[in-house]
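Thread title: Can someone regenerate the structure for this chain?

I was given the following input by a collaborator and told the matching structure tokens would be attached. They weren't. Posting the sequence so someone can regenerate them.
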Amino acid sequence: MKLSISTLGCPDWDFARVVREFAALKVDIEVRGIDGEMEAERIARFAPGRAEETKALLARHGLSLVGFGTSCRFHDPLQMEENVRAAERAIDVCARMGIPWIRVFGNDIPDPSRMAETAAAVCQGLKRACAYGASRGVGVNLEVHGDFNTRQALKLVADEMADVPGFGIVWDIEHSDKTCGDDFLPFYEVIRPLVRHVHVKDYLRGEGGAFTLCPVGQGDIPIRAILAKLRQDGYDGYFSFEWEKKWVPSLDEPEIAFPAFVNYMRAL
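Best answer:
Regenerated them for you:
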């Protein structure tokens, strides 16, 4: 089982500490912010003058950068050009650093009655990003996130994008659980051929639709069943811990949460 952890979970660690801690845990790095910077082209460690130094440091510690999480989202036609350009800039950095893919979002469906129209617009942005990525050897993965966390919305995207080179899906099992709960199989069948990366996290379901993030294995998401199904179907990508410490500072510190994730996963 290949494990990685998103740097979203350790926003106060500098890159040197990320390398030390991840190497000690024997997990690879999913990039979502480095040294406080979220935009790929602004990360000093990835700049042209330091790229080779950074790659050599990673190689010495036996670490890989498995993906880069952008904030690009393609649902708004008025912001499409800006987001496509941002995706292209991130792709350029990933090509330099040997990072195999970027993560993007749908993200919103402002009017559910126009879901198909919004999905079609999102697919146009995805196709443009994928075409550029293909020219640079970098894939583009849409995350299950926002309003694109239902079978209906994702089927529209999957049908349109199924044969587009370099396209894939990041299955965030928290976001899908909010719409399908324990009955994840119908949802999974929609995205199954396109799953390239899996975000693992857990939460407790509360009254009135409330959700409280918690350590992996201590909540209500059927993690064991999901992972068993993926492995049964031959999924060979990463299971990546996305501990949202940057957005939820009250969560456990990474020194506690990261080893707990690794121990849980390796015991499965």
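The mean pLDDT is 97.
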